[in-house]
Amino acid sequence: MTQASARHILVSTEAQCNELKAAIEGGADFAQVARENSSCPSSRDGGNLGTFGRGMMVKEFDEVVFSAPVGVVQGPVKTQFGYHLVEVTHRQD
Q1: Which residues, listed in sequence order, are joined to residue 87 by a DSSP beta bridge?
Q2: Range 1-18 burial, b when 16+ CB lie within 10 A, else e
Q3: Of the CATH numbers 1.10.340.30, 3.90.110.10, 3.90.550.10, 3.10.50.40, which one belongs to the domain with range 3-92?
Q4: What H or E segment, with its residue span, contains residue 43?
Q5: Neighbour order of strands in the sheet with 74-79
Q6: According to the model, what pLDDT value does residue 60 have?
Q7: What is the residue-level pLDDT of the chain in tens, covering all 93 positions?
Q8: Could you tell me the residue ranges of all domains in the chain?
């Protein structure tokens, strides 16, 4: 079973998500941006979600994590929770 590790930032608006993505692409540290902005409890750990398999996350999130290139920030990804920036940190088949 394919496993992935990822980190994310969860915010309530697409505009804020785009602003944070631009900051990260401009050199801001993903983990620091997560600690300062994400509404998910994972923000305490820099947005780290650990390792998980397919189907363990909501569909929209799952699709990104198991298709996006490793190490490239993706988003905004809209789910029922809000807007996410997602970075796959590792994936293994």
Answers
A1: 7
A2: eeebbbbbbbbeeeeebe
A3: 3.10.50.40
A4: none
A5: 48-53, 3-11, 82-92, 74-79
A6: 97
A7: 899 999 999 999 999 999 999 999 999 999 999 999 999 999 999 999 999 999 999 999 999 999 999 999 999 999 999 999 999 999 998
A8: 3-92
Phi, psi of 37 (to 5 degrees): -125, -25
Q: How far apart are CA 36 and CA 45, in angstroms?
A: 11
Token representation of residue 88: 């796959």
User: What is the DSSP secondary structure assignment for residue 45, as one 8-state letter?
Assistant: G
Q: What's the confidence (pLDDT) of residue 29?
A: 98
